[in-house]
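Input (LIM zinc-binding domain-containing protein):
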Amino acid sequence: MPNWGGGAKCGACEKTVYHAEEIQCNGRSFHKSCFLCMACRKALDSTTVAAHESEIYCKTCYGRKYGPKGVGFGQGAGCLSTDTGDHLGLNLQQASPKPARPSTPTNASKFAKKMVDVDKCPRCGKSVYAAEKIMGGGKPWHKTCFRCAICGKSLESTNVTDKDGELYCKVCYAKNFGPKGIGFGGLTQVEKKECE
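Output:
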């Protein structure tokens, strides 16, 4: 039968999908509004979709339906996932229970140390997390604290200098710590004549 409607048919609703609203997955076309997980109905995109033959799922539901089962699989290492997916309409085959492996005890002091050992900003003393970290002078800084200690100018890797654990722009560093004298940012010709 010829395709008189113009575009391809949607893999979910079987209606015509026009180019402006088309999302393709595994050679099939979908409307943007139909590109949903077949189990939980969550909206999908290219980073969250997992396809199995003609079915599309979010990665979580795909893992529940087609992923490995038993001890050590599921939500994290060393645990038994008891989520069967029934609330999502997934009919999962029950694998025969495997004998539990002896688990190694976690080192609580390592975990506690990792949680407490967060870098501190030298300027404000608060924790610096990866999303906001800028390295300068060998220390981690918040983006908002990465400023010249004298003039407050925002710094970048091209104009930052450090002295005694503090950050300075190149201009303030030269004025305060650089060589002194005529031509070195010290006294100007006019100021020198006034001093004489």
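Residues 108-116 form the longest helix (9 residues).
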